[in-house]
Each structure stands twice: as structure tokens, then as C-alpha cells.
Amino acid sequence: MTMLAFLDRNLWIKGELTEPKLNVLFSPPPTSNVTLTLAVFDSNGIKVTDDYTTTITSGTQSKIIELGDYLNTQQLSKGFTSGTYFILVKLIETNEVIALPLLITLGAYTSPPIPDSQYLQYYTVFDKVTGSYFNLPPTLTYIPSDPRFMVYAYLHKENKGRLIGLTELGTISFDTDYHQLALLTLTLQFTSIKEMMIHILGHSYGLTNNAVMQLLQAINSGDYDTALTLLRPFYMITFIGRVLTVEFDTTNLQIRIKTQTYLGQWDWGRIFTWGAVGCALTTVGLMAGAYVTGGLSLLGLSEVLGACIGGAIAGGLVAVISSASTDKPETIVEHQKKVEEEGEKAKQTNQQYYTSATDLLSSWLQQGKITQDDYNQMTTILNNWKTSMDSAIDDIVNISKKAIEEAYNDGYNKAKDEMKFWIIGAGLGGFILGQATAK
Predict the structure, then answer these.
(1) Residue 227 is part of which domain span?
(2) Are residues 114 and 153 in contact, defined by beta-carbon separation less than 8 angstroms?
(3) 153 with 166: CB under 8 angstroms?
(4) In 10 A of CB 192, how many CB atoms?
(5) Each residue's pLDDT tens digit, 208-219
(6) Most buried of the four, 37, 38, 349, 367, by CB within 10 Å?
(7) Residues paired with residue 155 on neighbouring β-strands, in sequence order
(8) Closest CA to 103 of 136, 70, 78, 74
(9) Listed residue (433, 215, 429) closest to 307, CA to CA
(10) 112 and 227, same structural domain?
């Protein structure tokens, strides 16, 4: 017998007594009564609720369970807070376990009026602590209001996208309008330098055990510059192909990630995602194993996954640097100039990151802090990172150039058809894109 389970909505708002609904399917149906149980776990794999248990009668093909009342009762008695959780659904007789992500918010406001709401595709809720995100349906009536989350509305019309930021008070913080291309910055704000460094360490890929030990020692002793010197490229690995630059500001406790994206094809997961995805999968696997074995494998789970999930983000903000639209040639040229500037800056910065990291690895090797195998493994990763990152940056700039050429041609043809003068400013010396004389 195979069990399939899914939620009709990956969101629970404190006080709701019906939503979300858990849909469970059985193939083939059980030939005798079986027991279904579920519980909620936090991102560290810690169980935060009592088990919910129900009997599935013989011959049942599908069952819908309203979880709101259970979650509300458990929250009142257990006191878990807003955040990203997992519901683990277990079929006792077969030990089948399915993990379902669930966003929990203790505060919400009525969804504000969205301009052009008929083009609303979905809301995205971003958890600033775990780095995870959820796309929620446009029919959503209430929006999370907890400062832990960032909330955006995405609209799509005529192959152009529009991103609207919503504050926790239910007002609009920014609106990109409709564009094909946009240059955006995601800023992650931390409350302490150590918290920031733990986040970077926990979301870095390719580090050897000996290197991690040296990094932990540096962080614990307050030598954050040394730790950051090695960590920057390994943290940026999962950004390859998605972003232009990643800046680490230890003075203001910020990480600033700049990307160019097609707003007409917006996909939060492809643009802003990092090692938290891999960490979350590891966490789910361990939690599922714990649920099957009765919790024994949870021993030490917090310590094992602490760095993976650790480093809470105190705040986050998406800012629009520039946008480009085929209806505004002057904006397009300005946009392309910014993209090229950011691309060149990024390659220079990456060279600095690469040189500093390889020099540190050489020093550690000479001091016996890491082995030759450690050195070989990590320098290979660094070489691949540098080559791939620079190549991806060139691709991003070239994609923008292609879009500019298309927009240029569109502007030329439209100008002729409508008998208008379209002039790009000083950047092109007042070159006339299209002109026609009325006859």
C-alpha cells in the first residue's frame, strides 16, 4: 500500500480552525483498518506538537483532515512561534512517512488591494530565518504580518512581470510596474557579526572537515576576517548563474545580492536560493528517520544541524535598482549600462575573493592546519567557481544586450508606425531611433 499526502495550502494562521486541509490518498486501499499519525517539527528537527492520530478504515481511497483546530490547540498549549515547519505524516503499519512544509504565522492582515489584481499570479512569502520561501495562491485572503517574513505579490501581463512588495502592516513598500527585465538587490540584515558568520558558514558548500574546524575556531575567537576570506566563494557557489554580485558588509552586518531577472518569467527559487535548500532536505530526512524510529535519531540533531539552519536573518529587503521595458528605450539603455557596470565590478570582486581564499588555503597548508587533500579539493572547487561565475556573469550581461537589441528594434518600428520622434539621451548623443514626416 502506498500513501500520498499533500496540503491544500502550505500556510496556517493562528486562530484558523479548518485550514489547512490534509489530503491523503491510498493505493491500493487498505484491506483492514490502519492508523495514521502526524506531528509538527521545526526547522531544527525538534518536535513541537503532540501526535495527532486517526483511524483509516478498510477500503478508504482518500481522506481529508482539517488541521486548523489541531494546530490551534497545540499552539496554545505548546507556544511555538511563527516560522517554517514540517508536518510529518506517518502510516503506522507500513512506516511510510511524508514530510510537508508548513508556514505558520501568529499574525496576519487582510490582503491589501493589489493594482491590476486580475493579473495576480501568486504571493511569495520569504522566511528570513531559514531562507525558505512559499508561493501561495492569489485567492489568499490573509497575508502573514510577522516581521520574520517578507511578502511579495507577483503579477504577469503580456509577457511582462510586476513585483509588488508588501509591508507587515499591509501597505505597499515598492512596485516595479510591468517590465521584462529588472536589476534587483536582496539585502539580508543580521543582528550580530557572529550570527552573520554562522549563516555564511552554514550555507557554504565544498568545505572539508579540517577547514570547517579552522573556520569554527576563527569565528569563536572573533577572527571574522579570516573566516570570511575563505567562506565568500564557497557561500556564493549556489548563486552561480543567478546573480551578478554578492557583497559582504561586516560593518553594517549585511549581505547584498544583486541580480538581473526577467520579471516576465519571475521565479523566486531560481533567483534567490542558497544552501538552505540542501540543509532543509537533510533536516527532513533526519526528521523522517526520527519519526519512524520513535525519536532516537533526534539525539544530537540540533548540534549536527545547528550551523546548517543557524545564523538568523534579522531583516530583509528587495530594492529595485533599475528596470527595462520595450516601451521606454531611454530606460533600457540606462538599465544596460548598469548591468554592464555591475558585471565588470562583479568579476573584479570575484578575482579578489579567489586570490584571498587560495592564499589562505596555502598558508593553512604550510602551517599544517589542513592536509594536502583538503587543499587540493578546495582549490579545485575555487578554480571551478571562478571560471563558472565569470562565465555566468558574461551570460547575464549578454542576455541583457540581446533584450536591448530587441527593444531597440521594437522602438524603431513603433516610432515609424506612430510617426513619433524617440530620442535616447546623452548616452547616444541624441541619436534618433525613429522618425517619420507627416505627408
Answers:
(1) 108-325
(2) yes
(3) yes
(4) 12
(5) 878 888 988 898
(6) 38
(7) 120, 162
(8) 136
(9) 215
(10) yes
Place of cell 516595479: 176
CB contact at 8 A, 283 and 298:
no
d(CA 5, CA 419) in angstroms, rounded, equals: 60
What pLDDT is recorded for position 414?
47
Domain boundary (89, 105, 121) is at 105
Give tens-digit pLDDT for 333-367. Answer: 777 788 888 889 899 999 999 999 999 999 999 99
Identity of the amino acid at 387? T
Handedness of CA 302, 233, 381, 219 (dihedral sign): negative
Reported pTM: 0.67
Work out how many domains the chain is built from and give that number: 2
Q: How many C-beta atoms lie closer than 10 Å to residue 229's C-beta? A: 17
Clarify whether residues 163 and 45 are in a common domain: no
Q: What 3-state class would DSSP assign to 156?
A: strand
Q: How many CB atoms within 10 Å of residue 358?
A: 18
CATH number at residue 51: 2.60.40.2550
Burial 154-176 (b: 16+ CB within 10 A, else e): bbbeeebbbbbbbbbeeeebeeb
231 vs 246: CA distance, rounded Å:
12
Which of 260, 294, 325 finishes a domain?
Answer: 325
Between CA 343 and CA 350 the distance in angstroms is 10
- CA 32 to CA 94: how far, in whole Å? 13
Tell me: do 162 and 26 sit in the same domain: no
